[in-house]
Design a protein that fits this description.
The protein has about 400 residues and is an alpha/beta fold. It folds into 2 domains: about 240 residues, Thiamin diphosphate (ThDP)-binding fold, Pyr/PP domains (Rossmann fold); about 140 residues, Rossmann fold, CATH 3.40.50. The protein is built from 14 helices and 15 strands. The strands form 4 sheets. The chain has a 6-stranded mixed sheet, with helices on both faces. It starts with a strand and ends in a 6-residue tail after the last helix.
Amino acid sequence: MNADMMTGNLAAAWGARLADVDYVPAFPITPQTEIVEALSVWCGNGSLNARFVTLDSEHSMMTAAGAAAATGARVFTATSSQGLLHAFEVLYTIAGWRVPLVLVNVSRALASPITLEPDHNDVLAARDSGFLQIHAETCQEVVDSILMAYRIAEDPRVCLPVMVNLDGFYLSFTREPVSLPDPKMVQAFLPPFRPTHLGFKASAPHALGTAVFGGATYSYFRHQIHLASMNALQVHEEASVEFERLCGRRYDVVEGYRLDDAEDVLIMTNAFASKGKGAVDAARAEGRRVGLLRLRMIRPWPADAIRQALQGRRAVAVLDQNLSPGQGGILFQEVAACLYHEALRPRALCSFIGGLGGKNISEGEFRAIFEQTAEAGINGQGIGPILLYTEAEHREMVQLQVLAGGLKS
């Protein structure tokens, strides 16, 4: 397969095109807009036989997406940041309808203050909605993850919507080589959508309504969403095996990098994990036995895979590109919870917060993470949450406060 240079956004659009989607409800927002622009062009020139409709908001967009999926259409849409929050009410509704569709979120930090660069508070705010979540590191993985997302979402054992996440700017507008799967391979991997979730097609419509239920009935249906989400772990494994057979690329729920003999492990996710891998290589060159575990699937939470990867390690550092005010790193809490009962759990678990609003994580900051994590492992005492912030950045902030009259120099 030949590789083409394309942005993460264009890769996402190609994922939808190769999936042969039927309906694309859209609303533009930076840094996602390039995705729906490409799909609009293809729908207009006949390259993609799909209905493209621009709605008046992300709330309307997601409502239209869920309604179309309920009729048996294969639906794709995309959003980012404040747009995802504007659609938030409908996320829970769609998951409750048990309709399979794919939503790409191009992560961007949330206001206020405002920034256009990424962190993961937008997508992680949706972790309890019922949407499954797959997080991509590279443009290649964006294309492949969207195809896998449809395969998982449409499986009768799951029948839930899936969110595929990629980092804004760092990946959305970064050009990388991407090998597009052959359409015949895609058709073998992802056959036409044959909905079983409601037992009817758009050609034979039914009228549906949502009833008001008591607590016992509501609990039953919410728990069914949980069980279906957990089923996605097995369905993801099956899809990974089949995708590797057809396209030669393997994706598991977590990815280990130089873990074989690692004493200390750094946990990351999304595009900044590439920086982390480079930092691991540099630390290895200095003689440190470190490795990296990248979380690819966040919902359902791949607890068994995480436990297996971290069993017997000296220390683990979780680098969260998010911040839950009053608590700390979101993924740190979930990693800690799944390790709690393990007899061979790491001696120390360390929490670091970095990359908020797209802030760079420097080589020096990664070196500090490895040094502090090693020390914590030796002492058997966890640390954090620690905000990664350089002396130069702190001096710059002090100067800004002085200029604003907030501090004396």
